[in-house]
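ZP: hey, is the 1,3-dihydroxyacetonephosphate complex queued? I don't see it on the tracker
AM: it wasn't, my bad. submitting now with these inputs:
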Amino acid sequence: MKYLIANWKMNSVNLDLWEQKFVDFINSHKDFPQPSEVKLIVCLNLYDYFVFSKKINTSKNPIFKNISLYAQDVSQHEEGAFTGQISSKFLANIGLKGSIVGHSELRENGDSETNVYKKGLKLKEEKLSNIFCIGEDLETLKSLNKKSFLLNQLKAFCKNGLEPDLLAYEPIWAIGTGIEADSENISSAVSIILNFLHKNKINCPVLYGGSVSTSNIDEIISIPGLDGCLVGNSSLDGEQFAIIASKIKS
Ligand code: 13P
């Protein structure tokens, strides 16, 4: 099984157009991978969730219908005076399947390793899945500290029975920059991650994120050990997302 995850972030997406372009592409490509071959996930804001989930539930297209919807963040708290935050209980009640945790754009805004861990625990309490993101910045890469940096992020999350359900390696310098990480860089990160997971008897798919597009997906997805991608900008267009999905088949 492969995975393709869209992270729409705080972008305005025309949901009607997205669906139409996505479904049109599928209808004209009969060899489009089945839900048993590629799991499609969209991480979206709650307003879009209410509209998009209705579209998915009422769709006649079996592939569109099988898209799972996740949040982009969750509170590390149970409930109370936490203005603007959304609890895992609330996500579960409205039907979301899980959430991203540890995205670098949230780490940059103050999410510590401890917060990320607590967010993972909160999701687990509600039986929701986590998409755990890790990745180094350019300075860490240049100072050759990538391995210890990634291992620290992994160790801070994988403890006391908490494990990633899906793990995305997203080097910060490749996010939204149009500069995807080169194969060698992705391969070395994947082997650091897989080694850690293996030693800790954790079995979870490992994905790559950072400027993934229709033009580099073939090269990225052929990297051994990668189980899929987490896509920002190129997921905002239903057709581009479908093209990427069509190339991700196992
Ligand atoms: P881009 O694909 O826009 O680089 O974003 C990647 C990302 O942050 C996905 O979570």
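AM: back. The chain has a mean pLDDT of 96.
ZP: great, adding it to the tracker
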